[in-house]
Amino acid sequence: MTEETLKSAFDLCVSKTRLNIEAMVDHPTTWAFAQNGDYAAWPEGFFEIGNWTNSFFTGMAVLSWLDTKEPHFLKQLERIEPFYNAKVNVAIHAVETMHDIGFLYSLYSVALYKNTGDKRQRALGLRAAEVLVGRFVPEGNYIRAWGRMDEPDTDYAGLAIIDCMMNLPLLFWAAEETGDARFREIAIRHADTTLANFVRADDSVYHSFRFNADGSPKGGDNYCGRGIESHWARGTTWAMYGFAMAYRYTGDERYLDASLRVTRKFLSLLDDEVVPVWDFRLNPGEPLLRDSSAAAVAACALQELEALGKSEDAFGVAKDNLIARLCSEDYLNADPAVRGLLRDAEVGDGVGKARSAYTSWGDYYFMEALGRELGLAVNWW
Ligand code: GLY
After folding, report:
1. CB under 8 Å to 339, separation ≥6 — which residues?
2. Where are the domains of the chain?
3. Is the minimum distance from the CB of 224 to ligand 1 under 6 angstroms?
4. What are the catalytic residues?
5. Of 99, 300, 335, 363, which has fewest CB within 10 angstroms of its CB?
């Protein structure tokens, strides 16, 4: 792809973000995904326990600001600070949360602190890291994904999910920032548990894994892929990127090996469409729906491996193909009246939630991939 094509796609992301971030701050509900691209229509509030997505918009605003230096973006990010502050500092909100405060605060507080030096954002990011370590279950060495920690009798007790690898950078950053080794130790213990239980011998991954109350492993589970033993495409990309970053922070070759193994497996399963089928193990006859958001995360994971000097011949070609395919009109919606950028992502288990939707995370990782190709320094993970 030419730099001009990349820049034109990036500029489209900036122009949608210019409007989206202001609208999201004016009406800070949970902006997550939408089949018609209207993220503002999702009814849940910002403080809902399941909110893991608002920061994909703040992340896009930071990327936009880094590129344009327009004060508009920082102004909106400042306006929403009371919400992020309350989410981890008001007791009830800090209890009614989940592990994805890693996504939420890496893409808000860490990004702002690292790029503007704002010390309030440093404190907020560190507070979020404290809330996240409060979800660590020492008996099983994992960070519990969902549900209040004071509720042991729910379906979510004893549950960890592959996505959590993306929450570990907040802890690694907090350890570096404070010198408190506790954050790093918990990140490493969670990564080790994920490596031991989620990555299968054939290099596919489980979406979820359950642990008994004494911490012993119980077995695989699933909330996002087709089934427990299926191979959910986006979960694979969380593992590709998450293990690569765990390697960056620790130098532990086992994490690099895991990232490379799941990456090779993922790439071996792509077909001529380029964008992956949302789950590589669907039942016979099921429609081969695609997940553009998995393609976007995969591109970023391949860039991360490249930045670490660990890319392989096939990786560079695959990265270029993925980004080029997402930039085509089949996926990228240039209509300014539609908030969403990337069509055709899969949400939930393919039955509930949304099919062929626009997703905040697909849009964010697409923009991150474009930004990295154009030389922007993505320094918040
Ligand atoms: N973290 C939830 C998802 O990827 O759908």
Report:
1. 16, 19, 20, 23, 34, 37, 38, 39, 40, 358
2. 3-373
3. yes
4. 100, 163
5. 335
Q: Does residue 163 have its Cβ closer than 6 Å to ligand 1? A: yes
Model confidence, pTM: 0.98
3-state secondary structure 299-313: HHHHHHHHHCCCCCH
Any ligand 1 atom below 6 A from CB of 34:
no
CATH number of 3-373: 1.50.10.10
Q: What is the pLDDT of residue 277?
A: 96
Q: Cα dist. 313→6, 93, 320, 373 in Å?
A: 22, 46, 12, 17
- Residue 10: per-residue pLDDT: 98
pLDDT per residue over 84-137, tens digit each?
999 999 999 999 999 999 999 999 999 999 999 999 999 999 999 999 999 999
Identify whether the C-beta of residue 346 lies closer than 8 Å to the C-beta of residue 278.
Answer: yes
Mean per-residue pLDDT of the chain? 96
351 — pLDDT class (breaks 50, 70, 90) = low
163 Cα: distance to centroid of ligand 1 (angstroms): 7
Ligand 1 atom nearest the C-alpha of 293 is: 4
**Mutate which of 101, 167, 361, 364 to test ligand 1's pocket (most atoms within 8 Å of Cβ)?**
361
Q: Is 171 in the pocket of ligand 1 (CB under 6 A)?
A: no
| Cα–ligand 1 centroid distance for 268 (angstroms) | 22
pLDDT 10s digits, 228-244: 999 999 999 999 999 99
Computed on alpha carbons and rounded to an integer, the radius of gyration of the chain in Å comes to 19
In the reported structure, the alpha carbon of residue 31 is separated from the centroid of ligand 1 by a whole-number distance in angstroms of 14
3 CA distance to ligand 1 middle (Å): 30
Position in ligand 1 atom list of the atom nearest CA 224: 5
CB atoms within 10 A of CB 209: 26
